[in-house]
Specification:
Keywords: DNA-binding, Phosphoprotein, Transcription, Transcription regulation, Two-component regulatory system. The protein has 225 residues and is an alpha/beta fold. It is built from eight helices and 14 strands. Helix 2 runs parallel beside helix 3.
Length: 225
């Protein structure tokens, strides 16, 4: 899962980044309004943590701009302005949650997990497709009830497709979601192909019914034949 932190306080931003990376999220940063808008225009995120008071603009105006450019990300507002007016305005503009500063990192993590579960998995704790089941809380993967051992990136790729069964996924989109924003600067995708090849092998050996199909010239689709 890929998260963007829009926060001008460098110390707080670093603390949040480190805590989320420990939870195995892919994390991007924006210290101001302009950078955040640029990133959301160019990349997609599963969740955005948005501060209201930015040095070059207001986070609520930024939230409105996201929708104006056709982007509708999951947003948790983080703000020291703990007022009813700001909460209502943020929710009316499409924010999903509001967490006043200061906050405990444990609560932030819980809010993110709850939001992603609600919007990506219809409120379900487990992710299931075919005979594969994933528990995101402990990164456990089972096939027919038997645990499957995967490395970090193999798991991330599988979770990405398990959250989007049957959907055609462009290889660039997959790369950005699993490896981060600046993956478009690499010369080739050989390292991605290697991880996918290994994941396919593990799934086949475990007897998984869903298959990761290559769609020539575009990307991949995770389907049950």
């Amino acid at each position: 899962m890929k998260i963007l932190i829009v926060e001008d306080d460098a110390d707080l931003r670093e603390i949040i980044v480190r805590s989320l990376e420990k939870e195995r999220y892919i994390v991007a940063e924006a210290p101001d309004y302009k950078t955040a808008l640029y990133k959301v225009e160019d990349y997609d995120y599963d969740c955005i943590l948005l501060d209201i008071m930015l040095p070059d603009g207001n986070g609520l105006d930024l939230l409105k701009e996201f929708h104006d450019i056709g982007k509708h990300p999951n947003v948790i507002i983080l703000s020291a302005k703990d007022s009813i007016e700001d909460k209502v305005a943020g929710l009316d503009l499409g924010a999903d949650d509001y967490l006043p500063k200061p906050f405990h990192l444990a609560e932030l993590h819980a809010r993110i997990k709850s939001l992603l579960r609600r919007n990506h998995r219809e409120g379900k704790k487990l992710v299931q497709y075919g005979n594969i089941e994933i528990n995101p809380d402990d990164y456990k993967v089972t096939v027919n009830g038997k645990e499957l051992e995967l490395n970090r990136k193999e798991y991330d790729i599988l979770f990405y497709f398990m959250s989007r069964p049957g959907r055609l996924v462009n290889k660039n989109t997959l790369a950005e979601s699993v490896w981060g924003d600046h993956i478009d600067q690499v010369d080739n995708f050989d390292f991605i192909y290697a991880q996918i090849k290994n994941l396919r092998k593990h799934l086949k050996e475990a007897g998984a019914t869903p298959e990761l199909k290559a769609v020539y010239g575009f990307g991949y689709k995770f389907v049950v034949e």
